[in-house]
Amino acid sequence: MSVPSPAQGTAKSAVALPLPGLLALSTAAFTAVLTELLPAGLLPRMASALSVSEGRVGFLVTGYALASFLAAIPLTAALRGLPRRPVLLATLAGFACCNTVTALSSSYALTFAARLAAGVMGGAMWAMLAGYAARMVPAERRGRAIAIVLAGITLALSLGVPAGTALADALGWRPVFAALAGLAVVLVAWVRWRVPDFPGTAREVRVPLARVAALPGMPAVLTVTLFLLLGHQVMYTYVAPFVRHAGFGRTDLVLLVFGAATVAGIWVTGALIDRHLRRTLLAALALIAAVLLALGPCAGSAPVLLTGVALWGAAFGGAPTLIQTALVNASQPANADAATSLQTTVYNAGIAGGSLTGGLVLEGPGAGALPWTAFPLVAVALLTVAVGRRHAFPGARHAFPD
Fold first, then answer.
1. Are residues 224 and 212 in contact, defined by beta-carbon separation less than 8 angstroms?
2. pLDDT exceeding 70 applies to what percent of the chain?
3. Which domains are assigned to the chain?
4. Under 8 Å CB-to-CB from 314, ≥6 apart: which residues?
5. DSSP characters over 47-97
6. pLDDT at position 319 over 80
7. What is the pTM of this model?
8. Which residue has the higher pLDDT, 301 or 182?
9. H or E segment to which residue 390 belongs
């Protein structure tokens, strides 16, 4: 019997990714992100149907994020001992129910309640996905597996939100949420069929969340998560009013450009993440900050707007994957669910805080102040990565922790 050479073993591991299962998890990420952010592309339509202002429709994003923020840590702590797949199936069924209610509701209060419930589902799901991917592959393929799963974020931004906006133009916004409910039902069957189950963490070996949060590198990763999402959501939640302020008036095209650019971003990230995580993240954050500076005075300049949005999308496309891979590396896969619950809390605090801040800016100084509000927040994230060389965002020579 011949023994495979090291090169053969490496080649085998490179093609041994469990793609059907990873793609199911990626589609779950797509569903969660689209459920969360779709109101940003439907502000005028939903505002009219629910008899509220566009700012209050923007708060539907805030409410979802706030519920995820509050639910992620306690739910993860309560569910850590349970088998992973049944928990994931339950969250998908919850998304189906919440999106069905949103599709049928004519009451802002009921819609807001459904969004809160969906946020709870999102908090539970996001605490699982990166850890799930990390447990399905060997350590040296961890970044690529997480990139595949979190590509669902990119697809939601590049295809989901623009397609949902276009579908709402043709059929109304309610069928869009009905379609999301149907997708969640399909996912229940897909996950049951192709995603392996993993046991929960036994009580006697669980690391307390406070100790996970204090692991070397964790505070820096969580700080980057918070400030990047704060800055991003200030702009993204209110992209429609900003596009009108810029004198362009084609929110659907702007969202399409942003989303298409994120595809390039996630492709580049997938190619570089396992070797150059630090450099790639630094470049992405620096580019986002530069774009915000360019968008500030861009009123009336469609080329500047579209070019800036394309660069913003390309830079942001891979950022969640880069940050979450850094998180799993810092916490190690055994603590990934707990670490990701902390990040989910911080992530959604950023979304809630950013959408709330953006709404207040929109109601006060106006849409033109949004880039200037977002820039210093992204700059904090960039500075944190720059100084986090030792533990949080080491260079290319770091070893993969098991």
1. no
2. 91
3. 19-196+207-387 (1.20.1250.20)
4. 261, 262, 264, 265, 268, 287
5. HHHHTS-HHHHHHHHHHHHHHHHHHHHHHHHHHTTS-HHHHHHHHHHHHHH
6. yes
7. 0.72
8. 182
9. none
